[in-house]
Amino acid sequence: MSSVLDKYAKSSVPRYTSYPTAPHFATDFPESIYRGWLAQLDTDEPISLYLHVPFCKQMCWYCGCNMKLASKYSPVATYVEHLIDEIDLIADAMPDRMPVGHLHFGGGTPTVLEPDDLGAVMALLDERFQFIPGAELAIESDPRTLSDEMVEKIGELGFTRASFGVQEFDPKVQAAINRIQPPDMVARALKRFRSVGVERVNFDLIYGLPYQTAEDLRRTVEQCVEMRPDRVALFGYAHVPWVAKNQRMIPDESLPKPEQRAEQADAAADALVKGGYVRIGLDHFALPGDSLAIAAATGELHRNFQGYTSDAAQTLIGIGSTSIGRTPFGYVQNISETGAWSRAVAAGKLPIARGHALKGQDNLRAHVIERIMCDGKIDLAAAGRAYGYADDWFASEQEALDELQRDGLLERAGGKLTLTSDGTRLSRIVASVFDTYLRGSTVRHSIAV
Questions:
Q1: Fewer CB within 10 Å: N-end or C-end of the chain?
Q2: pLDDT at 244 (0 to 100)
Q3: Burial letters for 370-394: b for 16+ Cβ neighbours within 10 Å, e otherwise?
Q4: Where does residue 32 fall: left (phi above 0), alpha (psi -120 to 50 degrees), or beta otherwise?
Q5: DSSP code, position 291
Q6: Number of Cβ atoms within 10 Å of the Cβ of 362
Q7: Pick among 2.30.290.10, 3.80.30.20, 3.30.750.24, 1.10.10.10: CATH of 17-357
Q8: Do the beta carbons of residue 40 and residue 99 sit within 8 Å?
Q9: Does the bond joining 20 to the residue before it have cis omega, within 30 degrees of 0?
Q10: Helix or strand holding residue 221 (H, E)
Q11: What is the C-alpha radius of gyration for the chain, rounded to an integer number of angstroms?
Q12: Is CATH 1.10.10.10 correct for 362-432?
């Protein structure tokens, strides 16, 4: 694998949580088009909601998210007011009080909100939408700043899942990324959530961090396995200091090389599987009874802007600055800068910064990329027929697929493509073959491993 890894590991490719990916959305996208899409939604089909809270109480140097440091609460309180206004704008644009099957608060750190403000947002959502029985309500949090009052409020509001960014327990790595978070702090936060009825808890881990070694990460995984989270996401650190200025605090020379990143990913995955977790797609792991593991086993795994999911909804409504939404007709992304986002909402406008109306082979290629990322296999000819194209619709990709096959990343029989074990690690590379928007693009992405 080393020669193949050397060839592909530094390739710049998307994570494929959508197709096309956000950098290829149009910046001159009219708000009126999105309003039209919302008005056409099927009122019998459950939708999903994502609410973005871009504030954190502490700055992590590895973070590549759109976030703002909240040294005082007044900007957060103002943000909540406009978040409530945007919820009303979205609901008003829909044909009826839409059913909701999944809700996710992300950030930033959503638990930076005051408990009463979180309650006010949830009360409005409950008024303007219909949460179906068994709906998943999920929220991201930070064990370092999580208060007992917020845990109680999250339990009271009926949240069903919480997630923590664990990243790495090694003290040297924690100091290098400015996130001091010992294991007992995480264990206590997990127990607090479960004590108020939030039974399902996810951990995020990261490989490729400064000064990190495979043995460091293996020890971290073993400590996490003892806590028994329901899911673990194992992400590769994306060093993009040209986008995230805080990452400039991390010296390039402190970062592991591609082959060391691969060793770390393998060590962590091995420890998780030995600990009883099922490997799912590129970078997720779950206990066998978790809905994500069940979806993977039954061929019903999907990807959205939060990564792998059991959520099959065709419509995901993004609310809050920088959030991305999806409908059966196309994608939209909100304005990232919170001030400009707030001004648009205050003016009664859906705060759209860019979007993309699906056209041509977009749906077909989105399906193929999603199945490669989720299942590691796809019948290309059958997919083409299902979307109204000839069996050889992928003729222009043949040369690239031949090369990947020679390099041992995939096997083909007729129109069927299956990733090898080496190819699974580089599934983003295989998926990128079908990305027509990537060809000739100068957009920079994170490296493939």
A1: N
A2: 87
A3: bbbbbebebbbbebbeebeeeeebb
A4: alpha
A5: H
A6: 18
A7: 3.80.30.20
A8: no
A9: yes
A10: helix 214-227
A11: 21
A12: no
Kindly give, in sequence order, each residue whose CB lies less than 8 Å from that of residue 193, ignoring residues fewer than 6 positions away. Answer: 151, 154, 155, 162, 201
Give CA–CA dist 283/426, Å, rounded. 11
Token pair of 242 as six digits: 């040209």
pLDDT reading at 296 higher than 80: yes
Give residue-wise pLDDT tens across range 99-151. 999 999 999 999 999 999 999 999 999 999 999 999 999 999 999 999 999 99
- As a whole number, mean pLDDT of residues 218-243 equals 95
Residue 111 confidence (pLDDT)? 97
- E strand map for 54-188: 55-56, 68-69, 99-107, 130-141, 161-167
In angstroms, the CA 261 to CA 146 distance is 31
**Would you call 146 helix, strand, or coil by DSSP?**
coil
Contacts of 226 (CB under 8 A, 6+ apart): none
Amino acid (1-letter code) at residue 243: V
DSSP letter, residue 387? T
At 310, list the tokens: 């059991």
Per the document, the length of the chain is: 449
